[in-house]
């Protein structure tokens, strides 16, 4: 059997590891991706951290949108949000799959692909309150596997790449708060969800402070940080509005706006690091060499 062309470019890797490194491509095809799309050029490390980190937010966003549909909170909008999130998951997994991961990193990506497939299957079809707990569990599994992959990528790079992970995690927290809120509203076990919500609020506040104190900055980043502070005030007010007739709608809309701001910030830090350090400043940009 002919070897994959990427493997032929990696003479320093044992054959056993090269074969394992292709496993992510096999799973991606099983999840509905084209092999040619997978076999593109590798990503810069900061961009891979961005893409892997985005999977964390998308896991929570999908569960949030599903709960909104169950609660009849702007259901058409929630349906579009969920469909968009599922599409971005597939795109990000494709981009990560073409990075040419080494065996250990490919294994982490494989778990993300399997978890994403499980979540995608659960949210297919008409929304049902009886499925909320399973959807939330699957979202938590994808969050955990994506977090492991993101952390592993961050550990391969320079410490300056951590700022991309911090900003990316803010995206996840923006959706985790709304997801917890909606699940409580839908009658799910309130005690652990309330704790999850309160913890996420504290972590989001701390993360925003860390971004504001970071040495990496541009005019665009500063503007986005100002917008994040303003939106955070609106978001906290919405989260405190349990029982108000508009509370669910307010949380749904403000969480999406906060996600947009934090996604812009993450991309801003990614671009700033590339300009500051250069795309080749990271060791082993082609991950198969890791």
Automatic annotation (TrEMBL):
Keywords: Membrane, Signal, Transmembrane, Transmembrane helix
Protein topology in the membrane: Multi-pass membrane protein
Signal peptide: 1-39
GO cellular component: membrane
Keyword Manganese: no
InterPro entries: NarX-like_N
One of the Pfam families matching this protein, by short name: PilJ
Organism domain of life: Bacteria
NarX-like N-terminal domain location: 158-239
Chief location: membrane
Transmembrane parts of this sequence: none
Keyword DNA repair attached: no
Cellular compartment(s): Membrane
Protein name: NarX-like N-terminal domain-containing protein
Organism, as annotated: Polaromonas naphthalenivorans (strain CJ2)
């Amino acid at each position: 059997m002919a070897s994959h062309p990427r493997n032929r470019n990696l003479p320093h890797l044992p054959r056993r590891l090269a074969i394992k490194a292709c496993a992510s491509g096999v799973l991606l095809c099983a999840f509905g991706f084209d092999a040619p799309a997978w076999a593109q050029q590798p990503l810069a490390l900061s961009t891979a951290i961005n893409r892997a980190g985005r999977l964390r937010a998308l896991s929570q966003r999908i569960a949030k949108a599903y709960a909104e549909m169950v609660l009849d909170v702007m259901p058409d909008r929630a349906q579009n949000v969920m469909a968009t999130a599922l599409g971005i998951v597939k795109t990000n997994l494709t981009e990560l799959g073409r990075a040419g991961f080494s065996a250990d990193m490919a294994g982490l990506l494989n778990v993300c692909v399997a978890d994403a497939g499980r979540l995608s299957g659960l949210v297919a079809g008409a929304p049902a309150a009886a499925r909320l707990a399973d959807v939330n569990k699957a979202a938590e599994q994808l969050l955990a596997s994506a977090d492991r992959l993101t952390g592993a990528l961050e550990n391969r790079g320079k410490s300056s790449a951590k700022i991309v992970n911090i900003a990316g995690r803010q995206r996840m927290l923006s959706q985790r708060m709304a997801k917890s809120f909606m699940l409580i509203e839908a009658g799910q076990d309130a005690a652990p969800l309330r704790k999850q919500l309160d913890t996420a609020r504290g972590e989001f506040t701390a993360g925003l402070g860390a971004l504001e104190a970071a040495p990496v900055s541009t005019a665009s980043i500063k503007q986005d940080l100002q917008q994040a502070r303003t939106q955070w005030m609106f978001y906290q007010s919405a989260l405190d509005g349990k029982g108000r007739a508009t509370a669910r709608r307010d949380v749904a809309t403000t969480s999406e706006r906060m996600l947009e701001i934090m996604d812009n910030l993450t991309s801003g830090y990614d671009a700033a690091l590339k300009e500051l350090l250069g795309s080749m400043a990271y060791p082993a940009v082609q991950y198969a060499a890791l």
